[in-house]
Design goal:
By secondary structure, this protein is mainly alpha-helical. It has 5 helices and no strands. It folds into 2 domains: 32-67, no CATH class; 70-119.
């Protein structure tokens, strides 16, 4: 009897079971015109999600948040590099006087402003 009890308590591994509220157990069929269908497929592809997930997000939030494009991800990496450069310039300015680093700071700020305009912020 004790042997069976230990056997039941043992962790079998694997992913834990989803709760009833988390399961996707209901299916809804929707008829669409060709234009609507292709628009849905295009928007889901641009957002980087499946059409079903796109529709669920639309229902939950009223909109779907688009994933970062490779172009925007590149801009963000450039911004991170510029932020590091600006921090180094600020450190130099604090250590050796502000007049020597004034021009470098202006250039860095102008490049950051240019990238922010490209991203659309």
């Amino acid at each position: 009897m004790e042997h069976n009890k230990k056997h039941k308590e043992r962790n079998k591994g694997g992913r834990p079971k989803k709760e009833t509220a988390e399961k996707l157990s209901y299916r809804i069929s929707v008829k669409m015109a060709a234009a609507d269908y292709f628009r849905l497929m295009t928007q889901a592809h641009e957002a980087g999600v499946s059409p079903s997930e796109y529709m669920r997000e639309c229902y939950r939030n009223g909109h779907v948040k688009e994933r970062l494009s490779k172009e925007h991800a590149g801009y963000i990496r450039q911004l991170c590099g510029m932020a590091n450069n600006l921090n180094q310039l600020a450190h130099k300015a604090n250590a050796g006087g502000f007049h020597d680093e004034k021009w470098d700071c202006k250039v860095a700020v102008a490049r950051i402003h240019e990238l922010l305009n490209k991203i659309g912020i």
